[in-house]
Amino acid sequence: MINFNGTIVSQDDNILTQNRAFLYGDGVFETLKIINNKILFLEDHYFRLMSSMRVVRMEIPMNFTMEYLEEQILSVVATNGCSASARARITVYRNDGGYYLPQSNTISFLIHSQPLENTLYEIEKKNYEVDLYKDFYITKQLLSSIKTTNKIINITGSIFADENGLDNCLLLNDSKNVVEALQGNLFMLVGNKLITPPVSEGCLNGVMRRQILNLAKKIENLEVEETVISPFDLQKADELFVTNVIKGIQPITQYRKKNFETNTALQLLEKLNEMISST
């Protein structure tokens, strides 16, 4: 028996007591966007998930092929009636047993989905203000580049943003360099140079980050570079924007007293939608 919210209930009725993702953050996940019953950037998501599972020493089942996961995800989306446009998440966690040291490296997975309003990516015409979040820092290590179920920095940072009337916050690593935003990777335009922090700085190895890097390299007279961004560099930028698979591109219009343009973000968004429409 256990005490759940002040009531004594059977432990068998509460699966959280046996879920290692809940107990220890022993899980990894992928968030995906589905348009017209097609998972965007499926191959990138699949290989990042497989890489994440290997990093944390999870046993990958023999049937965990890309085709199998695609079938499982789309079946949930279809059941929920949101095949036209949906957000889906697959969480993979180590099976019950042990404490910090697991008794097994076998896994289970959970997939859920919800509908989205728009099919193609759009940018809302509104002010979008950010600031630095300096209470906690991201460490420059491999675990920071994968999506684990331990996202406490993103949670506390989101609370900080909400309490201070901000739309987002930028996260720093243990070298006090700017790494990413709370909900995605960061890009900075200075003149004709588009810069994003390298994965070695501790940022997420984002699926949308990879798409934007590839699209940006096709824009004439635009130089693309993966290099360190310091807080001082933000004041010199012409544009700042955040990328993730669900939102696509979110331009930042204000950081402290500095206002930013959105031209390159809009240009990249147009190319992103063209790429999606042609596949």
UniProtKB/TrEMBL annotation:
Give one Pfam hit by family name.
Aminotran_4
Report the InterPro entries cross-referenced here.
Aminotrans_IV, Aminotransferase-like, BCAT-like_C, BCAT-like_N, Class-IV_PLP-Dep_Aminotrnsfr
Pathway given in the UniProt record: Amino-acid biosynthesis; L-valine biosynthesis; L-valine from pyruvate: step 4/4; Amino-acid biosynthesis; L-leucine biosynthesis; L-leucine from 3-methyl-2-oxobutanoate: step 4/4; Amino-acid biosynthesis; L-isoleucine biosynthesis; L-isoleucine from 2-oxobutanoate: step 4/4
Which GO biological process entries does UniProt record here?
carboxylic acid biosynthetic process
What are the UniProt keywords, alphabetically? Answer: Aminotransferase, Transferase
Gene Ontology MF terms: branched-chain-amino-acid transaminase activity
Q: What is its EC number?
A: 2.6.1.42
Catalytic activity entry:
L-leucine + 2-oxoglutarate = 4-methyl-2-oxopentanoate + L-glutamate; L-valine + 2-oxoglutarate = 3-methyl-2-oxobutanoate + L-glutamate; L-isoleucine + 2-oxoglutarate = (S)-3-methyl-2-oxopentanoate + L-glutamate
UniProt entry tagged with the keyword Magnesium: no
Q: Which PANTHER family match?
A: AMINO-ACID AMINOTRANSFERASE, AMINODEOXYCHORISMATE LYASE
Family statement drawn from the similarity comment of this UniProt entry: Belongs to the class-IV pyridoxal-phosphate-dependent aminotransferase family.
Put simply, this protein is called: branched-chain-amino-acid transaminase
Species of origin reads Flavobacterium xanthum
